[in-house]
Write a structure and sequence with these properties.
By secondary structure, the protein is an alpha+beta fold. The protein has one domain: Aspartate Aminotransferase, domain 1, CATH 3.90.1150. Helices cover 36% and strands 20% of the residues. The strands form 2 sheets. A 6-stranded antiparallel beta sheet has the order 1-2-5-6-8-7, covered by helices on one side. A two-stranded antiparallel ribbon has the order 3-4. Strand 7 and strand 8 (128-131) form a beta hairpin. Helix 4 runs antiparallel to helix 5. It is globular. The relative contact order is 0.18.
């Protein structure tokens, strides 16, 4: 169930990888200011909950990655096959979009269907969960999934 948003995200990542460096990189932007700028009070509250869950799981502070409002946690370095340049990517993250929360987990979510089936109302792509609001899902199951994949990586050196 990969939506066009997830497919677009991974197309951007693939294009960025083909170019020198990545456009989506860790920034020094203020996470609290970004969260405060979200119009919807429920999206702000859901974002705070996700920040707490992911920060506890990764022991890493939230960081804004790129210009598209992705909040990432932790990072790892990898090199592309046949290339010398080292690149960085986050272990997990999320983006509070207008209509959905997009949760980025660096794993193939289809390998965790046992949890997805218990999660509640959501859609998913290869490495993304799409949730309208956290009230639609079982937070204990979401937290279990976050803990299960917290050290996953898309890229293996």
């Amino acid at each position: 169930m990969c939506s066009s948003l997830c497919a677009s995200f991974y197309l951007v990542v693939k294009i960025e990888h083909a170019m020198a460096g990545l456009a989506t990189q860790e920034t020094d932007k203020d996470v609290n200011a970004f969260i405060a700028s979200i119009d919807s009070a429920s999206k702000r509250a859901d974002s705070e909950t996700l920040i707490n869950m992911m920060q506890e799981a990764t022991n890493a502070p939230p960081k804004i990655w790129g210009d598209n409002g992705i909040i990432g946690f932790g990072k790892y370095t990898y090199t592309q096959k046949g290339k010398k340049e080292e690149l960085e990517w986050f272990h997990m993250g999320f983006a509070p979009r207008k209509t959905k929360l997009t949760i980025y987990l660096t794993c193939d979510i289809n390998q965790h269907l046992d949890l997805v089936e218990q999660l509640g109302k959501c859609k998913w792509g290869k490495g993304c969960l799409y949730i309208n609001k956290l009230a639609d899902v079982d937070l204990d199951i979401l937290n279990e999934m976050i803990l299960r994949v917290k050290d996953a990586r898309w890229h293996n050196n």
